[in-house]
Specification:
Blueprint: E1 6-9, H1 13-24, E2 30-32, E3 46-48, H2 54-60, H3 64-70, E4 78-81, E5 87-90, E6 108-110, H4 111-121, E7 127-128, E8 133-138, E9 147-151, E10 156-160, E11 162-165, E12 183-194, H5 197-200, H6 202-208, E13 212-217, E14 220-226, E15 232-239, H7 244-247, H8 255-266, H9 272-280, E16 284-292, E17 305-307, H10 310-313, H11 322-339, H12 341-345, H13 349-385, H14 390-405
Parallel strand pairs: 1-2, 1-11, 2-7, 4-13, 11-17
Antiparallel strand pairs: 3-6, 4-5, 8-9, 9-10, 12-15, 12-16, 13-14, 14-15
InterPro entries: FAD-bd (IPR002938), FAD/NAD-bd_sf (IPR036188)
Domain FAD-binding: 5-339
Keywords: FAD, Flavoprotein, Monooxygenase, Oxidoreductase
Amino acid sequence: MFEPKIAIIGAGPAGLTLARLLEHNNMACTIFELDSDRNKRDQGGSLDLHVHTGQLALREAGLYEKFKRLARPEGEGMKVVKFDGTVLFDSGHNQIHNPEEMSWEKPEIDRVLLRNMLLDSVKPETIQWSKKLLRVEPSSSGTKPRFDLHFADGVVEKDFDLVVGADGAWSRIRPLVTNVQPHYAGVTSVELWALDCDKHHPWLSEYVGSGSCFMFDEDRAIQCQRNGNNTIRAYASVRQPENWSKDCGIDWSQPVAARKELIERYFADCGEDLKRVIEETSEELRIRQGYMLPVGLEWQCRPGVALIGDAAHLMTPFGGVGVNVALTDALDLARNLISCRDALATASSNDFEDALIEAIQKYETSMFVRARQNAEKTARGLHGHFQANGAEEFAKRLQQASDNTA
């Protein structure tokens, strides 16, 4: 059987899910990851996996039962607060008693747990760590559209039939198909942490509840989420120019003073509880700028190249769909690659090339539609949340959804 030589750039959720799906169906691949090991970087907070997208990908990868052991269905709880502290909606104090009685429509899972589960599901030799990709060049050997990967350590990995960019916002693979780069989305977030909340921050623990707590208002927001390790992350977000964090005059290296100034400048008229959230999430402070690719971005299919996840359709987090779309990309591409395998088994080299191109084209056709739909949803969220009535509109939608499922 002729097997395509597949490289996946990036060991994030999308790249790892694709690798697991391929290996689960006896197709080999190699992941090249920039980080030196799984613990090199903070993986971010909590995310929800939806039943028909992210969860479906894990089901087909044979990982659903492991996912259920790690996920927190009580994390679906939502609390929405107006800028003055008025609680508009609250399902955010769900205390889990029996997981089987909880909703599994959109359970939360910590990013680090999801990634570790995926890392443990692929063969150790599948991942090459500390591989900083410098460039991708067409292979000089043979006549088929193969690619060579040039890495910072001087190694050149040659003759890949398919290179999959799963390398995020600033993808090194995306320039092979389009010159379009992400642009600033207009919002910068100050990420704040509170550790060991039940012991050291009991008020904050009770206020946020078991899931997420949101305040949306004109040009500003406060978003909190509980993580499974008894940590709460909060994001104080402001609609400001791209250089705001450098030009605003706040010294972010002095966290106590920075929090105080952030409150005084941008959240002074908020309810005392909301200001207290910023004060109590005191263990970490990081600046996060929001970037996005244009809604509806498409390109001409290039043989031997595919993009998944943020590399294909970077969105802001204001639609709550990013990772779910990424895992669906991985599932869709894997299905198309696996479906043409029988044709590849007995094909001539020319037939193989045509089958692989067709698989990529089928994937991109559905991915472009999926990306546009979800990017439009996210763009509406980015616009609507930062309006004067953002909290009220969000709470109204949540209440309607709750009523429909009651």
